[in-house]
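Progress note, project year one: complex with 2-acetamido-2-deoxy-beta-D-glucopyranose.
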Amino acid sequence: MYNLPRLATVIAGVAAFASGVHAIQNVTRTGRYLYTADGNRFFIKGIAYQEQGAISTDPNNPFLEPSNFTDPLIDGAACSRDLPFLQQLGVNAIRVYSVNSSLNHDACMSTFSNAGIYTIIDLALPVNGSIDRASPAWTTNLLDLYLNTINVFSKYDNVLAYNVGNEVVIDPTGTGAAAFIKAAARDVKSYLKSISSSALVGYAAIDGDSTWVDPLANYLDCDPSGSNSGDTSIDLFGLNNYEWLQRCGVLQRVRLHYLPPRLWTEVQALFSSPMTDIWSGGLAFSYFPATSSQGQFGIVNISSDGSTVTTGDDFSRLKTQYSEVSPPNSPTLSSAGPNTFSACPQENSTFLASSTLPPTPNDAACSCLESELSCQFTPKTTNTSGIVGTLLDTACSLLGGTGGSCAAISANGTTGTYGSVAFCDPEVKLSFVMSEYYEATGRLATSCDFSGNATVNSGAPSSGATAAVTSCLANPSATAGSSGSSNNKNGAVGLLGNPQAWWGLASRASSASWAVC
Ligand SMILES: *[C@@H]1O[C@H](CO)[C@@H](O)[C@H](O)[C@H]1NC(C)=O
Ligand SMILES: *[C@@H]1O[C@H](CO)[C@@H](O)[C@H](O)[C@H]1NC(C)=O
Ligand SMILES: *[C@@H]1O[C@H](CO)[C@@H](O)[C@H](O)[C@H]1NC(C)=O
Ligand SMILES: *[C@@H]1O[C@H](CO)[C@@H](O)[C@H](O)[C@H]1NC(C)=O
Ligand SMILES: *[C@@H]1O[C@H](CO)[C@@H](O)[C@H](O)[C@H]1NC(C)=O
Ligand SMILES: *[C@@H]1O[C@H](CO)[C@@H](O)[C@H](O)[C@H]1NC(C)=O
Ligand SMILES: *[C@@H]1O[C@H](CO)[C@@H](O)[C@H](O)[C@H]1NC(C)=O
Ligand SMILES: *[C@@H]1O[C@H](CO)[C@@H](O)[C@H](O)[C@H]1NC(C)=O
Ligand SMILES: *[C@@H]1O[C@H](CO)[C@@H](O)[C@H](O)[C@H]1NC(C)=O
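Model obtained:
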């Protein structure tokens, strides 16, 4: 019962006792708010739960993004070890930044479900498993990664939401990437609908100037079709925030403590009106120790043998603050308002995302294409993420020298133009460009080598790479080489959930507060 806001505690307790079961309730969205199945308003009172991966100190990685990760939901003993501390904190949700879909999560998920703790699962992985802000695309490999994770987690009853991205856009010049985030939300939402999952779809944004963060939030929520369907709209907008600020009303911005001691005094405001008119709670950063450019975080230490948890003063203070929140159980479900989606924000100099979204990646079309291309990327290493970018640069440059171009593999979220091969994974794109070059040079054997990274496909039709694209897009499963679609993403999408629920997520320092006025 600790997992519910006070106002809901008695009702939930009676229901659980009367039925003899303790199933965690589904959380859905109505209007801009979240509700549990019993009709009470739901607030996320959570904490980030993942040990930090290896952080590179690369100057090209100023945001201290990890290069690997430890899945925190595969070690049942560790989850059981941590549960009493999460219960002391009174949290009802944990956020996990990356999981490995090939591992077993049953023990941890059931431990947390039985304790009434929801999970917010980010679908992206470090390195090549996320939308690349420098060269954004929404491709088959990412869609498949995301859907594989959903397939593994959909059997659990305590997945509150899946995040399709974390801080992909970090400044106004990168806002064109929002088109790809929105496409990811569209395809994940459509898939959840197809498997009858009620899990929500979120995005966690870095904070920044309102001239681009406000339109970003509105864009991820908007309906470019004008049909008010919400098919491409996220359900939850999280704001990773290091500061305590309030727009709308008392216009002030106060830097919070992010080095110990952290007082967590913003918790009371986040869980009270007027913040609760907009926000649905937040998550503190972080349970485990973590370092960021903003400081040191973490409210417990784990002994080196993994057996013992030691809490710090920040733990005690957060526990006290969380124990004192009493958010309003209003508006009631019946008065939560209609599901309305606004028009998408106009592009301007600080917001560059088109409302024309990239198409749903199609595995069958890309497999068909790969099998029909005359010059194929045949790497001698399994670590292809280290060489594909270099080879693409080389191949595009060579192709350009013959008068060709890489437009077919390019995607531009600002102009809303997406080449016909842009949704294929980077390796298929590379094979395509290699083939275009090979053909542009009259199928000269030496044009399909790339220092031993490419091989002529003797079975390819003579009509060429561009013709292969046309035939594979028209009839994706036409060739024997096609492995078929591993996802079922192309159907029409109905409304899932409701618009405009916002969560004041604070995955970094403190609880966030931010208002859409
Ligand atoms: C992450 O990388 C670091 C540094 O290379 C290594 O020590 C650590 O074992 C890796 N962790 C995982 C889970 O692979
Ligand atoms: C997932 O776990 C498997 C088995 O340990 C491992 O081989 C694989 O590399 C992991 N995947 C990721 C993305 O870490
Ligand atoms: C929650 O929703 C799922 C569909 O997403 C449904 O299968 C399940 O029965 C619901 N759980 C409860 C406790 O109502
Ligand atoms: C761009 O539009 C947004 C609203 O969508 C606005 O907040 C922002 O100020 C505009 N930028 C400029 C430079 O006018
Ligand atoms: C964890 O241990 C480090 C190193 O001893 C210490 O500086 C830090 O305060 C500890 N954190 C907590 C939450 O106890
Ligand atoms: C990332 O690259 C590795 C090989 O280096 C590959 O096995 C994996 O599938 C790639 N992941 C994605 C999402 O493309
Ligand atoms: C893959 O290659 C890149 C670039 O060469 C390198 O930085 C990275 O460490 C390699 N990854 C692995 C798992 O070997
Ligand atoms: C997208 O197109 C715009 C307008 O032509 C251009 O300024 C921008 O550099 C392009 N972006 C990418 C990622 O190619
Ligand atoms: C493949 O391409 C990479 C990147 O250009 C290069 O380092 C490597 O030598 C090439 N050949 C082989 C066999 O990997």
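The radius of gyration is 24 Å.
The chain has a mean pLDDT of 85.
No further modelling is planned for this target in the current period.
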